[in-house]
Known about the structure:
Blueprint: H1 9-23, H2 35-42, H3 46-58, E1 62-65, E2 69-72, E3 77-80, H4 87-93, E4 98-109, H5 112-118, E5 125-135, E6 138-148, H6 157-160, H7 164-170, E7 175-186, H8 189-195, E8 202-212, E9 217-226, E10 230-233
Parallel strand pairs: 3-10
Antiparallel strand pairs: 1-2, 4-5, 5-6, 6-9, 7-8, 8-9
Helix pairs in contact: 1-3, 2-3
Amino acid sequence: MNKNSPLPIYYQIEAALKQQIESGVLQPGDLIPSEREFAEAHQISRMTVRQAISNLVNAGYLIRQKGRGTFVANKKIVMQLSGLTSFSEEMEHLGLEPTSALLSYQIIDASMTIANKLRIREGASVYELKRLRIADEQALALETVYIPEQLLPGLDQDVATASLYAFAEASGLNLGRASQTFESRLATKEEAGHLGLSTASPVLSVEQLTYLTTEQPFEYVISAYRGDRYTFTVEMERQR
Length: 240
């Protein structure tokens, strides 16, 4: 650390650790030195070290594990919001192995909210699927999916663990577009349990409506993504 630099010491520590993580010197799962070890090695205060590490934890570069120490976090998954792709397709594109765990499967009567979203009558039969979306054996998202039964009469529990988009298209449906709404919030007890988070951890809540090319709603999905594993990017063009 350069104590004569105009840059604050905590910022120098933060930048140095970030560079080591991004360059691959420090790999996901590596244990970093403790605050005391950092402070003694560089003859600085533990409070200064704590600020640098806290900033990196908040930014998703590091993760604290109670009683064990601070570790390099898994690399964030960058999702480019530029086309309609399934979770399975996106993970495969990133070189990850996607799987799904079906937590519940039932056919229910559509509530007024679900009926309005899917443009069906209240009380119509809809599939309700609760799935844990997994990549390389790590749970990344918890989702609840609602699909009108009349659209996919062959959707059974075996199909529900695979790509719904692939099954829909194989069934002759043409998927057209989707609209998404994002909200940052804290994980619920259920979400935290399934995703391996504390209830104080941030998740990205996403509501998605997917439409067929006929503009008929195909699915209504409510998802909670791990906030420490995801970065969403959007490319925008100025309208003239």
